[in-house]
Design goal:
heterodimer, A: 311 residues, mainly alpha, 13 helices, B: mainly alpha, MetI-like fold, globular
């Protein structure tokens, strides 16, 4: 019985077999795409994001050099269009002669990896805690929400910075810290959605039919709460990339010589007035990635949550 | 109104206790013994170790330690910096005005530019102006501000030579701090050029710190205005022949500002997080840089106390925003 799994409880009533459900799913996807594609920025964002994903996946194929190879005799070479640049290092080289373009291409892998891991961890932990808080209410709820308030009382970057100081600098610890400071948002969203869905007739019907708490939480209620969570996931994907880059920049994230964009910026800082390219390009890569994801996030919100006005 | 205020204040107490537990546990969660960290690579004798343990109270049970810590806190004793040996609160109070000055300037810039831009974008909905403003706001919102600061330094300090790279004022000027706000102190000092120097040091950090709040406020103002512009009372005001400027400025904007005030309040946390990066880039001697430096110097007393103070400030500001919100929007008081 996959019918209880569909998003709209009314659509599931009286449907037999998988074909009709498949059709309604396709129709819903078409509807989603219709609203999503109304937002031109969102479509551009999607294409840019897909391009970044392809670049990250194919990094070993398209990068002209190894990201860690130091080329003696070509330190701080400017980009090709500037005097002194040459075609084998299109965006120039850094202070130890590594090809900037190749490092940026490999850096895309880290940024996407950070985004995926942080969001997956924050979403799954946040949803689980939020479901428990919203479903059981009472003392459990109070304790959980107070703990979330405590986490939210600190500026997220500061808390992440201190957590990394406890755990020790590094990419994995930075991701754990960022996931931890992000999950209260999912807890709150899930809890609010669960509380508004819990009193609906279809939940009561399922309960009367004998569904267990676990089934009610995960199969009956959760699928109807996903829209705001998807939008939040898109937005926190970009926040995760920004925060990880900021930690890298402060020396607490990925450690050199990892070609993570924030770490590259930290390494480039001392050459800021001598070699503009080592500073400009890594930041531009962060900006483009984050911007593309935020554009997509706006489009997702328009398509999934018609109640919210376009802003 | 007082009851509303007190009920909100009462809600803060458990959160504050929780925050103090987090800050307290922090120093105990760290890998390694805090006393051995003090000794550094030299190490220390067993006798001296015991002595220091007793001095810092680490030999007592955890809950006794926490109780003592809270008793000290309530008496205004936040501990002593391990590195400078100065009382923590004193260091905080010396550095905090620098952060306030920067944050205030940033929020003023963000509101002064963000609100009008949002209003214009809403009134001219769909025009190229709207699209440009909203496009720029999205870029601002997506900006890695640490990079943005470096770019501004390259352009304005490196290429044009207009602004200094770091600090609060040129080393040429010296005067005792009166208010802690460099702009005011430099004026009070009466030294020629001091105010200009302070101002030129402030410009770039302000722009960097204002960027994200500005973008958020512009987006929020626009969507709040769009909502309000469709309301009946706005149509009534229009139909009775009021000039558009009056309708938008008086009838629409005042109501649209209600959610915007909340947004502005919520930016305080964003500002303090942004201050960490901004102050690091511009070597601005405020609490953001203080915290980062302490993390690197492993001055855990400062990190612990700083976390607590910063969280307390954010909670108090959020409380004020809540109360303000209740004042301008009586509906939520009940």
């Amino acid at each position: 019985m996959s019918s209880t799994n569909t998003k709209d409880p009314n659509a599931a009533v009286g449907l037999e077999g998988g074909t009709i459900i498949a059709v309604t799913r396709r129709a819903r996807l078409a509807e989603f795409w219709y609203y999503f594609s109304q937002n031109r920025g969102a479509v551009i964002g999607l294409y840019v994001f897909l391009a970044i994903v392809v670049i990250a996946l194919l990094a070993p194929v398209i990068a002209p050099h190894s990201p860690s190879m130091q080329n003696r005799g070509s330190f701080l070479l400017p980009p090709v269009w500037q005097e002194g640049g040459n075609w084998s290092f299109i965006l120039g080289t850094d202070a130890v002669g590594r090809d900037l373009l190749s490092r940026l291409i490999y850096g895309a892998r880290f940024s996407l990896f950070i985004g995926v891991v942080v969001v997956s961890v924050a979403v799954s932990v946040g949803i689980l805690i939020g479901l428990i808080a919203g479903y059981f209410r009472g003392a459990v709820d109070t304790v959980i929400m107070r703990v979330m308030d405590i986490i939210l009382a600190f500026p997220s970057l500061l808390l992440a910075l201190v957590l990394v100081a406890i755990l020790g600098p590094g990419l994995v610890n930075a991701m754990i810290a960022i996931a931890l400071v992000q999950q209260p948002h999912y807890v709150r969203l899930t809890r609010a959605a669960v509380m508004s869905e819990k009193g609906r007739d279809y939940v009561t019907a399922a309960r009367v039919a004998g569904a267990s708490n676990i089934r009610l939480m995960f199969k009956t209620i959760l699928p109807n709460c996903t829209a705001p969570l998807i939008v939040q996931a898109a937005l926190s994907f970009s926040t995760a990339i920004l925060d990880a880059a900021a930690l890298g920049f402060l020396g607490m994230g990925a450690q050199p010589p990892t070609p993570e964009w924030g770490t590259m910026l930290a390494e480039a800082r001392e050459f800021i007035l001598r070699a503009w390219w080592v500073v400009t390009f890594p930041g531009l890569a962060i900006l483009i990635t984050v911007l593309a994801i935020n554009l997509m996030g706006d489009g997702l919100r328009d398509a999934l949550d018609p109640k919210l006005k376009r802003s | 109104m007082l009851r509303f205020f007190l009920s909100r204040l009462a809600l803060l107490i458990p959160t504050f206790i929780g925050v103090s537990i987090v800050a307290f546990s922090f120093i105990r969660l760290l890998p390694g013994d805090p006393i051995m960290l003090l000794a550094g690579e030299r190490g220390m004798s067993e006798e001296r170790y015991q002595q220091l343990q007793a001095l810092y109270g680490f030999d007592q049970p955890l809950f006794v330690q926490y109780f003592n810590y809270m008793t000290d806190l309530l008496q205004g004793d936040f501990g002593t910096s391990i590195v400078t040996k100065r009382p923590l609160l004193q260091e905080f109070l010396t550095l905090f005005p620098a952060t306030i000055e920067l944050s205030l300037c940033a929020i003023i810039v963000a509101v002064a530019i963000g609100v009008p831009l949002g209003v214009i974008a809403a009134v001219r909905r769909g025009s190229w102006l709207d699209q440009t403003v909203m496009g720029a706001a999205l870029v601002g919102y997506s900006m890695p501000i640490f990079w943005w600061g470096l770019l501004l330094i390259i352009f304005f300090s490196g290429i044009l030579g207009w602004t200094p790279v770091s600090g609060r004022i040129s080393l040429l000027y010296f005067f005792p701090p009166v208010t802690g706000f460099m702009l005011i102190d430099s004026l009070l000092s009466g030294q020629a050029g001091a105010f200009k120097s302070a101002l030129s040091h402030l410009i770039l950090p302000t722009i960097v710190l204002a960027t994200i709040p500005l973008a958020v406020i512009a987006r929020q103002t626009r969507s709040a205005m769009l909502e309000v512009l469709g309301e009946d009372y706005v149509r009534t005001a229009r139909s009775k022949g009021l000039p558009p400027r009056r309708v938008i400025g008086l009838h629409a904007l005042r109501n649209a500002l209600i959610p915007v005030v909340t947004t502005i309040g919520l930016q305080v946390g964003v500002l303090l997080a942004g201050a960490i990066l901004t102050e690091t880039i511009f070597s601005w001697p405020g609490i953001g840089k203080w915290m980062v430096d302490s993390v690197f110097k492993r001055d855990y007393a400062v990190v612990q106390g700083g976390l607590l103070l910063i969280a307390a400030i954010i909670m108090i500001v959020n409380l004020i925003v809540d109360v303000l919100y209740g004042l301008i929007n009586p509906r939520i008081r009940h």
